[in-house]
Amino acid sequence: MKSVKKHNLISRLTLSSLAFLFFFSINLSAQGDAAKGKKLFNANCAACHKLDKKVVGPALGGVTEKRDNAWLKAWIKDNAAFQKVDADAKEAAAFSPASMTAFPQLSDQDIDDILAFTSAPPVKKVVKATTDNVESTNKPENKDNTLTYILGAIMFVMLLMIYNLYRTVIEMKDDTKSKNLSEQLKSVCDAFKANKFLHFLLLIFFTLLGTWFVFSWLFQVGVDQGYQPIQPIKFSHKIHAGDNKIDCQYCHSSAKHSKTSGIPSANVCMNCHKNISEVAEDTKIVLDGITYGKEALDKEIQEKLYTAVGWDADKLEYTGKTQPIEWVRVHNLSNFVYYNHSQHVTVAGFKCQKCHGPVETMDEVYQFSPLTMGWCINCHKDSEIDMTENGYYKKIHEQLANKYGVEKVTEAQMGGMECGKCHY
Amino acid sequence: MKRVIKNSIVLLALITLITSCDKSKRKPNLQYMPNMYESVSYDTYGENSIYSNNMASRLPVEGTVARNSELPYEYENTIDGYKLAKAELKNPLDSTKIDFKKGKKLYDIYCISCHGKKGDGQGELVKREKFLGIPNYKDRDITEGSIYHVIMYGLNMMGSHASQLTEEERWQVVAYVQQLKNN
Fold this sequence. Notes:
The complex is a heterodimer of chains A (424) and B (183).
Chain A: H1 2-30, H2 34-45, H3 63-66, H4 69-77, H5 79-85, H6 87-93, H7 108-119, H8 146-173, H9 181-194, H10 196-219, H11 237-243, H12 248-251, H13 266-273, E1 285-287, E2 290-292, H14 294-309, E3 311-312, E4 317-318, H15 341-347, H16 353-356, H17 373-382, H18 391-404, H19 411-416, H20 419-422
Antiparallel strand pairs in A: 1-2, 3-4
Helix pairs in contact in A: 2-7, 4-5, 5-6, 8-9, 13-14
Chain B: H1 2-19, H2 34-37, H3 79-88, H4 100-110, H5 112-115, H6 124-127, H7 144-153, H8 167-182
């Protein structure tokens, strides 16, 4: 009996593997080109379907196992019409209130290609070792070391001077052999004490140096050039505005007609991040010399951004529970100065980079310009106004050109140096 | 003599002390008179602890319309609303007010990263495979009403772009999209 059973098992095995082969070959015969299918899928279906996750429509990975080929073709070509004649289709349509677009333009071959793509085994994602994702909390911050270097250099020069002095003294006396070290030093000191001119020089030198240091220090008080606060979300301008070439004004949309440029509200982020819930394998940012890879960045989106807007990524709906993202302000003019973005962006037509520097290369924004009065005034002196665009300026341009006897008028001549334009 | 040396040493020490103050890029710099620098009134994105979420900027009270602002959009964010807008909503700008240069400029800011320069669905995000499934305008049966409706509310995976554009700007974009579709 045992042997029979075994025989049975073997035959079942062969049978099923035969069936499998058969199934596979049928599948092959109906199979399209998965590579072409991917292209078509990305162009037509990816807005509403993913393979492994429901989005607007259901996940499509392995639909060919659930539905037969003819049904799928009928559905994809015109699902609204198909629903009227097929009970299964009517049931499928109950999936969501959104309805699927009809695709009469796809040929049978196209659909086979797409279906081949949906049933191709997903490529296993290789998760890289996470060593480069570690956050270390106690890394020392970059300090501005230039001054220390300068001081060091000065000390070095001083030592050289003393050494030279010492050499001269020795040469003058020319009796080095007879004296020991302390006596030698003493003789140097004596020579130094005796030389009044050297005292004078030193005094002047130190006074000038001191003044220079004190003034350069006083002048940078209140200037925040280089200020780079830590932001609540590791949002990278390099990835958004640089790599993906999103226009600055897509997010800073009030720059074109208001005083402030505005920080985008989270609904603007969600225009993309409803769909982009994770970043690609090779996306990474570098803050303070530490690299953050996919793992850390996915958390920034899924935990921080989604929590702030109250987006439930599983159910794909808003929960209504929101909380503000507290971005830390970088640029901050004093309250007694009036600065207006639309005047400079829309009217004068400057690129943002002119004042904010290469933001599209920054993983973390810092203040590029000093934002001092001198900085504003210098640019007003240098900028020539394009007055060809509107009628109002044409008239005033002529009058001003006559007044100053020049062809073009700078902003300073237009009144960009009047205190009241900026302080009132 | 001694005095000179002593003085210079003291001076040197003082300078070193002052200039070597830790000037971290993470903290704002010292200020002379902060009380004249900081705004007394609430700043655009400032905090205001009166409100539950601490935000100084508020939404308009429901059911009110600010002076000089656009009137509320009447069509609903449903498939029926979409169909209705598609059928009857018309561009209020006449041909003299439609400015394709302006429309293009706005389109190149707000739509180009997904829909591409020519409206063929080949924007930068699509080319880099970050955001897929953007339709070609030519494959879609769209009217000025439906385009406007889609900008107002979005559609499935496309989000609403109403907060980034004013009413007039939206219609300029609509005109430009129609031009892209028809060429």
